[in-house]
Write a structure and sequence with these properties.
The complex is a heterodimer of chains A (257) and B (304). With 257 residues, chain A is of the alpha/beta class. Chain A is built from 6 helices and 13 strands. Chain B has 304 residues and is of the alpha/beta class. In chain B, helix 3 packs across helix 4 and helix 5 runs parallel beside helix 8. The chains are: A alpha/beta (257), B alpha/beta (304). Strand 12 of chain A pairs antiparallel with strand 10 of chain B.
Chain lengths: 257, 304
């Protein structure tokens, strides 16, 4: 079985963001980078599927600048067999259709039986790329999956809907699923596996080699939302803050009555 | 300008979120038509053409078939804009449509400024304006970003639609959310734990504060996904929707999915080390502090 998992490197969302010079993205300096949270579930599910079927080959793919290789090494340490780094210094300038087209162009002749992606990225959050890849490859896709099972060449999945309801959906492989948070428990790479990952194959080639389409949209502007205001901001020592807050609760709410 | 609104239907019911699409079209001053895979027995209150496919025949979740039904209607109506909710149905179907149309596609639109869709970036810390290079555009709307100013009225002119496209997936019905646990919707005070609690051991300080305020404790999604708190206590779009007199958000950044579940609270206090966290947008008071110090201090003074 051939499995592909597509991941993205994103900034830690707790970071202090700054707007880049041309105001079309955030400034990439002074940020801590990590694997997109949704993709951690995708990698874990791919690794679990590999161990379930035994005879499987698992490729992890990532588009981005040189630094994304650090995130790819984590995926390799979690259990992926090989890495494909599609080098692009400014992937945020490509729209979801272009990103998906690059992945589909890479995957088209590789005959992957299963493809996993995150349901969305934490930074751009379009929730489009996984489904677009499947559509471009003309294979079925199931999005927003919180439960995945594979048996007899068939995928049985549960999609998460609003209100905590789940939809039961199944399809034949080859197929693609986009992974929702909570789908499994992503493993922490062990030290021996981190060492082993350093020797795994990690190919890199330029995105331009795989990009054969033109984008449909571009970012006009990125900016901080206006503070709606109204909220009171309290800062200071914990004890003083507690006194202030209790006073506010007494004045503004009836909960301490 | 013409917009085609993709209404939603689940388990025999039209979803009320469909009216947010109507409100959006009204705000834009656009002509509209509506598309629904649903049933005669639950029609939207809407003055306009409703292109209706039978969910009994085509199933409530069947992307390849719904896609073809919708593409046929788009070919007929020629809308400049195809509008979905940014929901499990909408974000699944919309990319299939934008790809087939070769159209631009803006996800989770929160507003339109001078004709340009605005979407959140980085957990709503930033905003992004998307300019389309195509004549047609597909948009999905953030839940709650647009609302009708009055109750929906009207009777649609129904046009039945059909297709013989083959399905790619099989829909096997729904699994209800786990019953039991705590009904947070009735709590007058809720103290919720977010990722900022750091480790499961710190949950006790949240529980202690909830007890001191005679309320219940809840949690945001990451805390539930980590299995530190049972899903029955999750507040947000995939958990419970609450409206207590007081909501205390401890270490919760304020992702839209969480805000959807608690923004009707009467009074909101957020405790966060990050002054720029989006939770500050809905908080009446933002306490900038380390919750591990502040929460026990507050509990001690409340119980003294």
């Amino acid at each position: 079985m051939k499995i592909l998992v597509c991941i993205k490197q994103v900034p830690d969302m707790e970071s202090k963001f700054k707007i880049a010079g041309d105001a079309t993205w955030y400034d990439s300096g002074d940020l801590a980078w990590r694997m997109n949270e949704y993709d951690e579930y995708a990698v874990e599910q791919a690794v679990q599927l590999k161990s379930q079927v035994g005879d499987a080959d698992l490729t992890v793919l990532c588009i981005g600048p040189q630094r994304v290789q650090e995130t790819m090494k984590k995926a390799l340490a979690m259990g992926c067999d090989r890495g494909v780094h599609i080098a692009d210094d400014e992937p945020f300038k490509k729209d979801p259709f272009e990103i998906a087209s690059i992945i589909a162009e890479f995957a088209t002749d590789k005959k992957f039986d299963m493809i996993f992606t995150g349901m969305q990225s934490q930074d751009r959050g379009s929730a489009q790329v996984g489904i677009l890849v499947a559509e471009l490859l003309n294979i079925p896709s199931i999005s927003t999956v919180v439960d995945f099972a594979f048996a007899d060449g068939k995928v049985s999945a549960k999609r998460e809907l609003e209100g905590g309801i789940k939809a039961l959906v199944s399809c034949a492989t080859p197929a693609l699923v986009t992974c929702q948070l909570g789908m499994n428990t992503p493993r922490y790479p062990t030290l021996p596996n981190i060492m082993k990952a350093k020797r795994k194959e990690l190919l890199s080639f330029p995105a331009a080699d795989l990009l054969k389409v033109e984008g449909k949209q571009e970012t006009a502007k990125v900016y901080f939302p206006e503070k709606k205001g109204g909220g009171l901001v309290l800062e200071g020592a914990a004890g003083d803050l507690a006194d202030q807050l209790i006073q506010i609760l007494k004045e503004k709410t009836a909960v301490l009555a | 300008m013409k917009a085609l609104l993709v209404a939603e239907y689940r388990d025999g019911q039209l979803l009320a979120s469909s009216y947010e699409l109507v409100a959006f079209a009204q705000e834009l001053g656009a002509d509209s038509a509506m598309f629904l895979v649903g049933s005669d027995s639950a029609l939207p209150q809407y003055d306009g053409t409703l292109h209706l496919a039978d969910s009994g025949k085509y199933s409530e979740f069947n992307p390849a078939v719904h896609k073809q039904l919708l593409l046929d209607v788009i070919a007929k109506e020629q809308p400049e804009m195809v509008v979905f909710s940014h929901s499990s149905y909408g974000w699944d179907l919309a990319p299939r449509i934008s790809l087939a149309l070769g159209a631009a596609h803006a996800s989770e639109v929160v507003e339109i400024v001078d004709g340009v869709p605005v979407v959140p970036v980085c957990n709503a810390k930033l905003r992004r304006q998307i300019s389309a290079k195509t004549d047609q555009i597909v948009v999905t709307l953030q839940s709650g970003a647009f609302g009708l100013s009055s109750d929906p009225v009207g009777t649609p002119t129904v046009e039945k639609i059909d297709t013989d496209t083959a399905a790619q997936v099989e829909f096997g019905g729904y699994e209800e959310a786990e019953a039991g646990g705590v009904d947070l919707s009735k709590a007058e005070v809720i103290v919720s734990a977010g990722r900022g609690i750091g480790k499961p051991e710190n949950l006790t300080i949240i529980e202690d504060l909830a007890r001191a305020l005679k309320g219940e404790y809840g949690a945001s999604r990451p805390v539930v996904d980590s299995e530190w708190v049972d899903h029955s206590r999750q507040v947000g779009s995939t958990g419970q929707t609450v409206s207590p007199k007081l909501y205390v958000a401890c270490g919760i950044s304020g992702a839209i999915q969480h805000l959807a579940g608690m923004k009707k609270s009467e009074y909101v206090i957020a405790i966060n080390t990050d002054k720029d966290a989006p939770i500050g947008e809905v908080a009446d008071v933002l306490v900038v502090a380390d919750l591990k110090e502040f929460v026990p201090a507050l509990t001690a003074k409340l119980t003294a």
